[in-house]
Amino acid sequence: MTRTPAPVAPPVCLTIAGSDSGGGAGIQADIKTMEAHGAFATSVVTSVTSQNTQGVTAAFTLPVAEIESQYDAVVSDFDVRAVKTGMLASADVVAAVTERVADLDAPLVVDPVMVATSGDRLFEREGEAAYQELIAKATLVTPNADEATVLTGIEIETTEDAIAAGEQLVEMGADAALVKGGHVSGKKVVDVLVADEVARFTHQRVETDATHGSGCTLSSAIAARLAHGDALTDAVGAGISFMTRAVRYPLDVGKGPGAVHHLVGLRNKAAREETAEAVEGIVQQFVEADVRALVPEIGMNVVGATPYAEAVSETAAVEGRITRTLSGVKPNRGVRFGASSHVARFLLGAREAVPQLRFAVNCRFDDDVEAALNELGWSLAEFDRGEEPDDVKAEEGNTMGWGARRAFSGDGETPVAVIDRGEVGKEPIVKLVAEDADTLAARALDLLTALD
User: Fold this and answer.
1) How far apart are CA 110 and CA 87, in angstroms?
2) Less Cβ crowding at N or C end of the chain, within 10 Å?
């Protein structure tokens, strides 16, 4: 008996861009990102670059006829649902691409690649004016601050400057413009989407030089979401979230800073079952060891974060917590993602400083526990709720993240345990953290032994 095929029909995306021999940007980044979003990636190579994580050493632009031939081959066979352009290199190439995409019934995302992240120029200066006709065909144009300045003449130093540049790009004919804020100084990055209305996407800046391929990754992610039928604002928001995580957890490859992690979302989802099973294993050890002496009045919870977790929904925990019984301890219910609030927010806050931390547990804290902690000789930290800013207190759930960031803000040894001495109406707690499940369980059981 032969097996019956079961074909699937993902939306087809097309990237028209240059090749990056280093694999972090260009066509290579576009294909990885589109496929990571469940789209089928096709490509038109416009140029070949000799490039790595340290910079661009050479570039060769393909003849226009060869570029047109690739494009015709793709669109004559595939139902292309979104197109993304990247490095086009010359005015002739821009003109040819503009002519070809003019009649295509699909969203067009134009990433006006002119300067690489490394600072190397990737576009002929005299050809910059040719971009205006391509921009006029765009569903969305996605320049960084430097590229927006080249295209509009507006120096981008503030959010208001970005809005002004975006409005000018829309006046050129684009349906919308996303002016990216990564090149603008500040603790937070503000990306501005200018369409019928202005939308701001604000996120914390990641202190890393491993941003090679970030622009390609973002525009490709947006194109893939548009191919799936997402509304523009939703596609942009999803693309920014995807790219932010890809930058937060870069790939340590090459001798330079590295590259963004194009498959980070897939890797994170793939680890969910393993993470939940690890939490279940810790809970089982606690039940067998009878950790009643460690369970606080509010109950205990064990939390595990996926390797690239950025939200509570990406942490697994006991639903309803672990409570004391007459004969030991018992989890109220099973383990599920998003089940914890306080301990999960604490762990996510700790990961802001130490991303390798993946597991945490809250335990009872009093004089006996403090003595046991000192006896173990662990690295300890604590935070004082009395120093919590009013704006943090005003929003429910912020305290744990704030406290974790305070506790892990130092440059010394990573704390094993963090003490929260509580306040009126708030029980004192100590939280243990670890990079893996076995270590967290061992630390909790060592503390239990030290209490005897």
Assistant:
1) 10
2) N
